[in-house]
Amino acid sequence: MTDVTLAEAARLAALQEMRRDPRVWVLGEDVARGGLFGQYRGFLDEFGPSRVVSTPISESTIMGAGLGAALVGTRPIIEMRIFDFVMCAMDELVNQIAKIRYMFGGQARPAVVVRMPHGIWRNSAAQHSQMLEGWFTHIPGLIVVTPSTPADTAGLLVSAIRSDDPVLFFDPKNLFPLKGEVPDTIAPIPFGQARRMREGVDLTIVTWSAITPAVAEAAEMLAGRGISADVLDLRTLWPWDEDAVAASLSRTGRLLVVHEAVTTSGFGAEILARMLERLGPGAIRAAARLGQPRVPVPFAPPLEDALKPDADKVVAAAERLMRQG
Amino acid sequence: MTSGGDNRARLLALYATMWRIRAFEETALAAHRAGEIPGPLHVSIGQEGVAAGVCLNLRTDDRITSNHRGHGHALAKGAGVQGMMDELLGRAGGHCRGKGGSMHIADFSVGMLGANGVVAGGIPIAVGAAQGLRLMGSSAIVCCFFGDGAINRGPFLEGLNWAALYRLPVLFVCEDNGVAAFTRAEAVTAGPGAAARAEALGVPAFGVDGNDAAAVDALAARLVAEVRGGAGPRLLHATTFRLMGHTSTDPAAWRDAGEVAAARTHEPIARMRARLLAEGLTSKALDAVEGDARAEMSQARAAALAAPWPDPAIAWEDVQDIGAVEEPAR
Which residue among A48, A131, B57, B78 has the highest number of C-beta atoms inside a 10 angstrom radius? Predict the structure, then answer.
């Protein structure tokens, strides 16, 4: 076990997998220089320029070339630098990568990992702060991974690289410095298994990615006020651990979903809807979502803070829920 | 240099391939009109010389990417005819099990990595395939077919820059039929066009009369050898003419009938026939080539019509291994 940052955990996982499988390679802007967050530091020296390819700022072709390379048997890690730039590669991702296996009757296996560091980070404003992971759960063919700890990042990245399905891997930008323990040999963590962050009986809080530490803090504050929260980090949004959420909600009867993404049409809506379908209204005393309002992420710190979900807002939402039912 | 007999055999091979493409598409058009083929159908009638001339120079393990008008590319690359016809008719035995249709024909067993419903969609895929092949230590190359409409999309610029930058083994083939869907290319394309744009990105470009299959063959032979030899990407710019509308239901009435009639006198099959007659082949022998192609395709149509539809259960298959939704109990 070593105590490392989340960025280092991601680096160690990719390093392990590139040593293990010569078909794995990485392409993206500045990856040969170590990547924007140091996730690929030292890779060029070890693997050389044919497996660590710094590319032009050509998002369509970064994405599409990764697909083409997968079609001839390699297993590319496609680095998007910052999530928001994937908007320049949506045809290649949504029309090509997500569809190609199905559309060609199973002939194609697009075994790619698309890494997209997302979320609010250092007052980067509206085009460098988005969380749109919910969009991609809507697209058949894709796996959506949203880790929040160094260990989960490492284990889920190993699974992503070994997956024959295309995986969208959302690194939580503002958690890259977060420290945690990572095993020396990183075992794959299966997709679709939530991590219980805290056990509780009064309400279920479901969360993922960058907001997770704030939710942990809020749960602690709630405990001080006599409210016991059962907290689940989903870790992956497709597939997602419906069973774990249903089991918890069956015990608590109250559900709060917290995500940094805009609340409207966010993945929290899907979770609430599925639980209603699955458990019926009788099993749910109260349910709510907490996320960004439907407003772009602003630049100035007081503006950004005003809109961003934080521990206090989670506590307030949980207390409202407790009053409702 | 090839001897006269070898040359005649090569010309005859081009002629046969062009007829197979023509017959396939005329058969498909008839089947579409008869209601046997659902969905959109884009035919390349009049453009067969490009597919035939280029693909004659490719190995089976070479890959191609294609566009929405891709039947000819697939056939010339060696894709199975019955699998193609079954696919157009949406049958279980189609190359894509009836999930792709005309616009998404693919036959990976012969290196045909797929037609594409998005203009220029195949370009990034082609350069990545070339990069992957190099990484895997293969000597195969990638040939990327697209039309003049694609050169106005960003992936054209990105992909050619990328291929030149990494000296990738890609032969770009621009089939310039002068029309992007319903709009003349010249009305929407500034500057001197595909070849000049390629040259500006460091990709040597060479023009050819795409309706002269022998000339396409000769140029492709040279460019494929250069690309395979490690010289980096090349662009073959073939001018041709789309004799039909954009889709099977488009009469292209906006075009002057005289223009199309004039183009018919330059179409690649008629030209090759005249050349082969001059080379001493008989009308009878050439008629047999056409007859064989037509027979093959009408047989494929009949077989596809008689073939089973896909089981609706397969609609749920091949989405993803992990996180696939299950068919509800019926």
Answer: A131
Interface check B64 vs A, CB under 8 A: no
Q: Domain B4-308: which CATH class?
A: alpha beta
The pLDDT value given to residue B1? 43
Domain boundary assignment for chain B = 4-308
Is residue B233 over pLDDT 60?
yes
Catalytic residue (choose from A118, A128, A138, A259): A128
Q: Quickly list H helices, B103-177.
A: 122-135, 154-165
Angle between helices A311-324 and A212-224 (to 10 degrees): 50
Given the candidates 3.40.50.300, 3.60.15.10, 3.40.50.2300, 3.40.50.920, the CATH classification of the domain at A195-324 is 3.40.50.920
B89 CB-near residues (< 8 Å, 6+ apart): B31, B36, B37, B301, B304, B305, B307
B232 alpha-carbon distance from chain centroid: 22
The CATH 3.40.50.970 domain(s) of chain A lie at 2-182
β-partners of residue A114 are: A78, A168
Chain B, residues 112-131, CB within 8 A of chain A, namely 113-114, 116-118, 121, 123-131
- Name the token pair of A19: 């040593």
ipTM attached to this prediction: 0.96
How much is the average pLDDT of B256-262?
A: 88
As averages over each run of 10 residues, the pLDDT of chain A (325 residues) reads 95 98 98 95 98 98 98 98 97 98 97 97 95 97 98 98 98 97 97 98 98 98 98 98 98 98 98 98 97 97 96 98 94
Chain B residues within 8 A of A60 when measuring between CB atoms: 124, 154-155, 158
Locate CATH 3.40.50.920 in chain A.
195-324
Q: Which residues pair with B206 in a beta bridge?
A: B236
Look at B132 and A165 and tell me if their CB atoms are within 8 Å. Answer: no
Question: Which tens digit of pLDDT belongs to each residue from A86-138?
Answer: 999 999 999 999 999 999 999 999 999 999 999 999 999 999 999 999 999 99
Give chain B's end-to-end CA distance (angstroms, integer): 66
**B322 lies within 8 A of chain A by CB:** yes
